[in-house]
Every structure is written in structure tokens, then in C-alpha cells.
Write a structure and sequence with these properties.
mainly alpha; Growth Hormone, Chain: A; about 80% helix
């Protein structure tokens, strides 16, 4: 094919209805994430919430890291036909989008300065519903077009996603700055979140207009509606045990924290770290044990659980053998440097003395274009020089740019310096993300594409997000410069892992 013909084919694909669809669905997916991440961090900080508590709110996004747990439900469980006649994918998509709107409106109703728990509930709901929407969009993208269009659909989805993040980031902060004053006003932030809820109408309208994809016929392990409902009940019971464990353990956790502090002279924040980690571990273990008990009681067929959760994992280990563990470690740590730093970035900007308008302009607007540019460059590098070299460069730049933040923390509030640091950081993140997505795709088996990719993408952010929840406490004890240097050091083991995996050519 001639060069001109190849460009013409690419342009035709770019304006294909499926590509436009993914642009709008990507926007719908990009809006909610910052409403529980950096934008919420600014709101909480203005409301007078402590830095340590602000970064704990990043755990509300853990739904993205655990979405593989309920991905099989979304993939297999049909909604009642008497209520939803749009098809399985579109009906689930519509339900998740309306749920996101309700969760955002819930969050807008409560002032975190006085009702922080209600704000936390809203953030968790946004995270869970948004992660569900992501599961459905991924499935819709794969099923709605042929393989030769998937790269363009992914590119359009990412572009829409970044635009949605721009609206929920720079747009939300810009509105808060325009409507607000120097004094904290809850009503300003409430109105901002209501506007963001309206932005979700773009995704809802898109869902109502697009066709249901033609799903290839696949033999299902579920034989009746009772099988679906039993599987859903298993999931709900495990979630209930997880939440109940957190609620019940609250008072004992406070006692243990005080005991560690008084009896062993342990720093209060360190004791809080250990207790909070123990509570999370206990909740996960008890939720797993409750699920196992229900399986033993034959609520759900053991075969159903095996085929749904175990077989995709077994397939991965069969294909990669002993090197699979190293690959999983790489997946779980590759983005650690930028995620841990990113949670506290907006709080850092505020503490440095930058205005919300400056943050919106430099961090969100110019950062968006830097990310897109870095993503395109990462894709070109992956094709031209191979994915491992692009992976290594992305990990290296992600660590190095964190050192720029350490330098910024030692200077006065220089807006030009902020611009260059933000552009460098976002460009490196875009490059690393593009290379990493290409690598994750190469690891996925065509027999378990949706489930394995959900697992990979969940593992990718789980550990970094848990660690990021403690970033505020680390800054309080050590200061911003040492914190940023520490996040750069976290990137060194990642570089070694990339070199090792590259030498063994795992996945490519």
C-alpha cells in the first residue's frame, strides 16, 4: 500500500462511527476518576481536611484495582429484560452511568468540613460505579469492531478519556476558582460537582444512540438465571463482609493504635499505618473466607468459580511458567513512581502557593497535551525500537521527573518552572503508559482477553494506590523534597525488572 493510501485509510478509520463512539465513551470514563482523585483533594484541602486524611481518600479509587472481582458478573449476568431492552452491554453501560451520576450528586450534597464520612461514601460509590463502566466499555470496544480497528478505537478512547479528565480537572478547578472567593465556600464545590454530573449526559446519550455489538456465540458456564443470581449473591456477601469488617474494627483499631503508641513509643502516624494496613488485610481475608464458606455450602458451583476466576490465571502461568511471578511483580510496580507522587501533586501545588487557576492551566491543560504527545511518542518508540526499550525509557523518565518535583519544592512559587516540570512529568507518564498498555496486551490470551486484561490492569494500580494513601503522612514527617526523591528511588527496582523481563522476552 502506498503511503498516501495508508494515510487515507487511517483518516477514514478515524471518522468511523465506532471511533467517534469510543471518543464519547472515553470522555464518560475520564470524568469520574479525578472527582475522587486530584480535584477532590483540592476540595478537601480547602475544607481544612488534614493532608494525611486527604491522601487516604485516594483509596476510593481502589475499585479500579479490584474490578476483576466483579468483571465476570458484568460479562455474564443479564439485567431483567422487562426493564432493559437495550442489550446486555448497553444496559449495563446505562446502569453504571446513571449510578455514577447519582454518586456524584450524593457527594455534592455533603460538606467534608462537617460530614467527612458522607463524602467518603460518595467517593467510594463513584469509584465502584466508574470501574464498572470501564469494564463494560472495554468489552464493548472489543466486540463492536474487527481487530484491524482496535488500535484506532483504543487511541480514540484514550483521547476522549484525557479530555474527560481535563474537564473534571482543569474545568472543575477553573469553575471553583471563578465562582469562589478567598474563603472556603461549600456551595461553590457543590455546584462544581453538579456540573460534573451533567457532563455524564454525554456518555448516557451516546449509550442510547449506539447499537448493541454483535457478540460472538460462546458457550456459557451458567445454565439458568438461578446460576447468575447465586453468583451475584456470592459477590454481594463477600462485599458485605468486607465493609462490615471495616466498620466493626474501627473502635478496636483506635485502641490498638493508642496501645502501640503508648506502650512501645511508636510514632502515632506509624502506628496508624500498621493498624490501617492490618484492617485492610483482615477485611480481604474474611471476605475471601466468607466466599469460600458459601461455596462449600453449595450456594455457587465450585466449577463456576473455577472457570470464572481460576482458569484465566492458570492459563497465564501455563504459558509463562516460573517467569510469570516476575512479570506480575513488574506489572504491580511499573507505575509506582508516578502514582504515589500523583496523589499528592495537587496538594503540593496548593501548599506551594499556586492558585487553582494556575493548577488548572499548567497541570491539567498543558499536562493533557503533554500526556497525549508522550503517548504518541511512546507508541512510535514501541514500534520502531521494541516495547522493552520504550518500557525502560518510560520508567526512567517517570523516576527522573519526580526529582524535578523535589527541586521545585525547594524553590519559590515560580509559575514558569511549574509549567516545565508539569509538562516533563506528563509527557513521561504518557510515554510510559503507551508502552505499558502495549506490553499488557501482548501478555493476554485470546481465550481470556477480558478477564486477564482486567486482572493485569487491576494489579497495575493496586499496590501503588495503597502506598499512595500514606503519602500525606510521609510528607508530614519528612517534607516534600525527601518524599519526591524517595518516589524516584522507588523507580530503580522497576528498571531492573524491565531489563530482566526484556532479556527473557516475556510477552513479546
Amino acid at each position: 500500500m502506498k503511503t498516501s493510501e495508508s494515510w487515507q485509510a487511517a483518516l477514514i478509520t478515524l471518522i468511523h462511527p465506532r471511533s467517534v463512539t469510543m471518543l464519547f465513551l472515553g470522555f464518560s470514563a475520564g470524568v469520574p476518576i479525578l472527582l475522587i482523585f486530584s480535584t477532590l483533594s483540592v476540595w478537601l484541602r480547602e475544607a481544612g481536611v488534614e493532608r494525611g486524611m486527604v491522601t487516604f481518600f485516594s483509596w476510593a479509587a481502589l475499585g479500579y484495582s479490584f474490578k476483576f472481582v466483579w468483571a465476570p458478573l458484568v460479562d455474564c449476568l443479564p439485567l431483567p429484560k422487562s426493564v432493559f431492552r437495550l442489550g446486555r452491554r448497553r444496559s449495563w453501560l446505562l446502569v453504571s452511568q446513571f449510578a455514577i451520576v447519582i454518586a456524584i450528586l450524593w457527594t455534592s450534597m455533603f460538606d467534608p468540613a462537617t460530614t467527612l464520612v458522607m463524602t467518603a461514601v460518595g467517593a467510594v460509590l463513584i469509584g465502584f460505579c466508574s470501574a464498572t463502566q470501564d469494564i463494560v466499555i472495554d468489552a464493548y470496544r472489543i466486540e463492536s469492531a474487527k481487530k484491524d480497528m482496535q488500535s484506532m478505537l483504543s487511541a480514540m478512547y484514550i483521547t476522549g478519556y484525557r479530555i474527560g479528565m481535563l474537564v473534571a480537572g482543569a474545568g472543575a478547578l477553573g469553575l471553583a476558582d471563578y465562582w469562589g472567593t478567598d474563603v472556603y465556600d461549600f456551595q461553590v464545590w457543590s455546584n462544581v460537582y453538579r456540573v460534573m454530573a451533567l457532563m455524564m449526559l454525554i456518555g448516557i446519550v451516546t449509550t442510547l444512540l449506539i447499537p448493541e455489538p454483535d457478540r460472538p456465540h460462546k458457550e456459557t458456564i451458567f445454565r439458568s438465571r438461578s446460576d447468575y443470581l447465586r453468583f451475584a449473591m456470592l459477590f454481594l456477601c463477600a462485599v458485605t463482609v468486607f465493609i462490615a469488617t471495616f466498620v466493626v474494627s474501627s473502635t478496636p483499631a483506635d485502641w490498638v493504635k493508642s496501645w502501640l503508641t503508648n506502650e512501645f513509643g511508636m510514632m502515632s502516624r506509624l502506628a496508624g499505618f500498621l493498624v490501617a494496613t492490618s484492617r485492610l488485610t483482615l477485611a480481604v481475608v474474611l471476605a475471601g473466607l466468607s466466599a469460600k464458606l458459601l461455596i462449600e455450602c453449595h450456594l455457587v458451583s465450585r466449577h463456576h468459580v473455577y472457570e470464572t476466576y481460576i482458569e484465566p490465571i492458570n492459563d497465564f502461568f501455563r504459558r509463562y511458567g516460573r517467569t510469570a511471578i516476575i512479570v506480575i511483580v513488574l506489572i504491580g510496580t511499573y507505575r509506582i513512581a508516578d502514582i504515589v507522587m500523583g496523589v499528592i501533586a495537587n496538594v503540593f501545588y496548593i501548599d506551594m502557593g499556586f492558585t487553582k487557576s494556575q493548577i488548572a492551566t499548567y497541570s491539567k491543560f498543558w499536562g493533557l497535551w503533554a500526556t497525549i504527545g508522550g503517548g504518541f511518542f511512546g507508541g512510535i518508540l514501541s514500534v520502531r525500537y521494541g516495547v522493552y526499550r520504550a518500557l525502560f525509557l518510560g520508567a526512567l523518565l517517570s523516576a527522573v521527573t519526580n526529582l524535578l518535583f523535589a527541586y521545585l519544592a525547594t524553590q519559590s512559587a515560580d509559575s514558569l518552572l511549574l509549567l516545565w516540570v508539569v509538562v516533563a512529568d506528563n509527557a513521561s507518564a504518557g510515554l510510559a503508559t503507551a508502552a505499558f498498555i502495549a506490553y499488557l496486551s501482548s501478555l493476554t490470551s485470546m481465550s481470556f482477553t477480558a478477564m486477564q486484561y482486567a486482572i493485569f490492569s487491576s494489579v497495575m494500580t493496586l499496590f501503588p494506590k495503597i502506598l499512595a494513601g500514606y503519602s500525606g503522612m510521609i510528607v508530614d514527617n519528612m517534607g516534600y523534597p525527601i518524599f519526591f526523591v524517595g518516589t524516584a528511588v522507588l523507580g530503580i527496582p522497576v528498571l531492573l525488572l524491565v531489563v530482566w523481563v526484556g532479556r527473557h522476552s516475556v510477552g513479546r
